[in-house]
Design goal:
The protein has 350 residues and is of the alpha/beta class. It has two domains: 164 residues, Rossmann fold, CATH 3.40.50; 112 residues, Dehydroquinate synthase-like - alpha domain (Dehydroquinate synthase-like, alpha domain, Up-down Bundle). Helix content is 44%, strand content 18%. The protein contains 13 helices and eleven strands. The protein has a seven-stranded mixed β-sheet with strand order 1-2-9-6-5-3-4. A two-stranded antiparallel ribbon has the order 7-8. The protein has a two-stranded antiparallel ribbon with strand order 10-11. A hairpin with a 6-residue loop joins β1 and β2. The longest helix is centred in the middle third of the chain and has 21 residues.
């Protein structure tokens, strides 16, 4: 097990990565009152382990799935906290995937003006990305993550024991964020290509998860709240991915990030940000996890969802585009009509 420090100005965090991380939960709570937020799927699978780790702690199990990541569910968490008599000295334990982590983190940020939170991510995507860095949010008004706060966890416990119950689609979802890191960090990218036959090997995924956390920890420590712009690199593939996710649903967040990176490689090439060879490298990397890019009928219409994204400006859709060097990127603001034309690439089967 590795311990990775996330040295942010507001609150430094520790991330425990590897077997045995979950066993540290009781020590992380430190004898304080604990309140657990999870979802119905995780409660069914790991309810007994939760009870053993935190005897007597009240548990709020919310409905599973992105469509429940909204203000109604958030206030159900608040209702449960009030009913349990949770005090401001308590520790909220967010035990689940990205949806639980985002909502639990936001509940901790808001309840009594802020209480401590421990993140226990149970999906590959949450372990390599969303549980680290303090971004918390709910979806509102048809826009992803538009209501939220930066609220750093005290501790994050990334234990591979939870990966054994994930379906293949959830593994592919996590690979979306892992491959994104590989495109931003040369060392991670080289390891992925060298081990491309092991992308569904849980031992390898646990190892690469720690590499992804180390990379994100460096970025977040430098730019905790996306003020300087360094952290914006983590939005690679997300402008397009979020727009498609809102419009079409069904697929996982990570799959849409993969599709977003694939499309944005064409944008980077045609906008002169990168060479055709580097754009092809990006597409080849995406295909390690998603060999066939699906076609999307009416994809041009998704421009309206892209323009709602919180990252964008009044001038158009903001995309993070990889340039010639590994890890180097540029931002481009694309007027709506031009971005819609690029979305049209997805109307043809890749």
């Amino acid at each position: 097990m590795e311990i990775i420090e996330v040295n942010t100005k507001s609150r430094p965090s520790r991330v425990y990565c590897g077997e045995g991380a979950f066993a540290e939960l009781g020590a992380c709570v430190g004898g304080k009152e604990a309140f657990v937020v999870t979802d119905t799927n995780v409660q069914r699978l790991y309810g007994e382990q939760i009870a053993r780790a935190l005897p007597g702690a009240p548990v709020c199990a919310v409905p599973a799935g992105e469509r429940h990541k909204n203000e109604k569910t958030l206030f159900k968490i608040f209702d449960a906290m009030l009913a349990a008599g949770v005090h401001r000295s308590a520790v909220l334990v967010a035990l689940g995937g990205g949806v639980v982590g985002d909502m639990g983190g936001l509940a901790a940020a808001l309840y009594m003006r802020g209480i401590r939170v421990v993140q226990v991510p149970t999906t590959l995507l949450a372990q390599v990305d969303s549980s680290v860095g303090g971004k918390t949010a709910i979806d509102y008004g048809g826009v992803k993550n538009v209501v939220g706060a930066f609220w750093q966890p005290d501790t994050v416990l990334c234990d591979p024991l939870f990966l054994h119950t994930l379906p293949p689609r959830e593994i592919r979802c996590g690979l979306g964020e892992i491959l994104k890191t590989g495109l931003l960090d040369a060392a991670v990218g080289e390891k992925l290509w060298a081990s491309r036959g092991r992308l569904h090997d849980l031992a390898f995924l646990s190892e690469i998860a720690a590499d992804c956390v180390r990379f994100k920890a460096r970025v977040v420590a430098e730019d905790e709240t996306e003020k300087s712009g360094v952290r914006k690199c983590l939005n690679l593939g997300h402008t397009t991915g979020h727009a498609l996710e809102l419009a079409y649903g069904r697929r996982s967040h990570g799959e849409y990030v993969l599709i977003g990176m694939w499309l944005e490689s064409f944008i980077a090439e045609r906008e002169g940000v990168c060479s055709p060879e580097h754009a092809q490298y990006v597409r080849d990397t995406v295909r390690l996890a998603l060999p066939r890019i699906p076609a999307f009928r009416g994809a041009r219409d998704c421009v309206r969802y892209a323009l709602l994204d919180k990252k964008n400006s009044e001038k158009g859709a903001v995309s993070v585009l990889l340039s010639a060097g590994k890890g180097e990127y540029a931002e481009r603001i694309l007027p709506a009509a031009r971005y819609a034309d690029y979305l049209g690439i997805l109307e043809e089967r890749a």
